[in-house]
Amino acid sequence: WTESHILAGHNGTFEFKGPYPDYVNYKFMRQFTAMFGIGLVPLAYVACHQLNMSRRACVLAACFVLLDNALCVMSRFILLDESLLFFTAATLCSVAGLQNARHQAFSRTWWRWLLLTGASLGLVASCKWVGFLTIALVGLYTIGELFTMYTECVAVRTVARHFMARVLCLIAIPFLIYAACFKMHFMVLNRSGSGDARMPPAFQASLKGSPLGKQPFTVMYDSQLTLRSMHAGSGMLHSHAHRFPEGSGQQQITCYGHKDSNNEWIIARPRGVGFNNTADPPVPVRHGDVVNLMHQQTKAVLHAHRAFAAPVTAGAYEVTAYGRLGWKDRNNDWRVEIVREQSRIVNSELHAITTQFNLRHVPTGCLLSAEAVRLPSWGFGQTEVTCSRQNASGAATSLWVVEKHVNSRVPKTDMRKLVKRSFVEDFVELNLAMARSNNALVPDRDKHNHLESDAWSWPFLVYPMRLLGSWKEGDIKYYEVGNPLLWWSSALCCLLFPLQLLFHFARKQRGVPAQWAPGEELHYWNGAKLLWGGWALHYLPFFLFGRVLYLHHYLPSLYFALLLLAFEIDYFCRHVLRGRLQNVVFALWAVGALAVFCWFAPLTFGYSGAIEELKYRKWLPTWNIYEDRHVM
């Protein structure tokens, strides 16, 4: 995806706000996205063919994918969802081909489908983490396949060969592709940007143009510092003029994950023992030194006391900003204790970026700590900072690093020569940062949003989504509304499938003769478990997710549902109808899908007129085509 932006001339400076600059070929970027949407149609046909559906059903399934308004409109935007859908479809197609070739194990055809499945899994996971639901589908299918071999008393050696082949193709190859995508990103995206603050200082310093790349290496007294907690997701030591509503009522100390002037501190000797900044040479901060930290903006000093407990974390002391430099208050005193040094220069001095250290409160012996515990609204949801009595000096919660060091009297050093990063470290750190960012997307139930929706509403298209904020006449309006005929019928099909399964099981238990042609029953259940399982695994987990949800999160599930609908229509026609009636049913479904698609097409391809001119498009009272239920 990044490579497509490079080919389009995007150099990373445009933030996709406002008109496109001349140097960005946005037409190419949209065409690149649209190609993934176009590819869904032939993949649907091939997948259904591999699932042994009739040719008419294969064509009908491809028509369903082609004629869904939501799938179509998403392919018009420069988003990751279309590539995610494409590789999800490619995975289904490959698994279906592998299933069809199961009796030709270890043949060239079988290996081809197995390798394609692995490659598709790696690519779908590399698009978005929702792709791991596709991996779960293939994983469960593989477990079921190996278990069937075991119960059928296949030779242990043969089962072992199957197992090793799947480990290679379905685990090793997807992981290598996933890791290779990150490697390419690190090679291409090698410049500093607005998202740097989410990553460790050592990673930031390795980027071109990073303000951390050149700075004084040895930390001196009277320097301006930015301190970062080594606990993932905590952020940088921060203060602001707001006070704690309870406890001491003193100025708040927190950790904040974004770069801000309120993250800046001055390190000084306690009780006013300073230096003559013009005559004396700079003095380095060393292991065991007792220091004060003054907040640059408010001039308050980092402070802790036994008198008050931390507002959230039980058993820890409150940390505040209180007093001024020069005050004889021992509660402002902190001892620097170096824990580890990551550069080749190992001495007792404190270094920027490479030295991890504790700040031990001198009067109480507790450690300055940040455990990624969020404060309530009065703390703006920032991370709580406490003084921990657990004395876990090596724990990440109590480790700090100087991220930025500013002192005009000390020469700057090229930190990239001192900081050594491995790909594995960067790979792990970036994935952890992605997880934290994803988990932070929590819906605020006190605020209404015209974009968000809940998972229960998706199959029945209760809340379609306006894709652009402006809905005035003259503005091009896109509306993510699916083809209601296909969404409602496919949802009904998926919800009723367990009952169909129960009905067939009951008939089998009662000994009712089955009306299957030889081998037809096995083909049916093999196809049904992939399609219905794909729908369920891509839909039901969203009920457990705590993050913000949108209608387009249902689109991978919808793809499986549309194919299952065509699959069931094919099954019905084969067993209930005869002759031309089958053709009539297929034609009616295709014509109906086309008619509904055309009816909503103005909102799919963009409508610039007054929205009131599009009559009778509001099929449910919850649809916000004409008026929004939320204040935008």
Describe the structure.
- The protein has 632 residues and is an alpha+beta fold.
- Helices cover 41% and strands 14% of the residues.
- It is built from 14 helices and 16 strands.
- The strands form four sheets. The chain has a six-stranded antiparallel barrel. Strands 3, 4, 7, 8, 11 and 12 form a six-stranded antiparallel sheet that branches.
- Helix 6 packs antiparallel against helix 7 (131-151) and helix 7 (131-151) runs antiparallel to helix 8 (156-188).
- The model has no long low-confidence stretch (mean pLDDT 88).
Give the count of helical stretches.
14
Number-wise, the strands total 16
* Unreliable spans: none
Shape: elongated
For the termini, the CA-CA separation is 31 Å
The biggest sheet, with number of strands, parallel, antiparallel or mixed sense and barrel status, is: 6 strands, antiparallel, barrel
What would the average pLDDT be, to the nearest integer?
88
Q: State the helical fraction.
A: 40-55%
Helix-strand topology string = HHHHHHHHHEEEEEEEEEEEEEEHEEHHHH
Question: Could you say which structural class the secondary elements and strand pairing correspond to?
Answer: alpha+beta
Whole-angstrom Rg: 30 Å
Strands in their spatial order, largest beta sheet: 2-5-6-9-10-13
Strand content: 5-15%
Please name the defining characteristics of this protein.
632 residues, six-stranded antiparallel barrel, six-stranded antiparallel sheet, 16 strands, 41% helix, 14% strand
Please outline what is shown here:
The protein has helices at 2-7, 26-50, 55-66, 69-74, 81-100, 108-127, 131-151, 156-188, 201-205, 423-439, 484-509, 520-539, 555-576, 580-605, and strands spanning 214-215, 224-229, 236-243, 251-256, 264-268, 290-295, 301-309, 317-322, 334-341, 355-361, 367-374, 383-388, 400-406, 413-414, 465-466, 479-480.
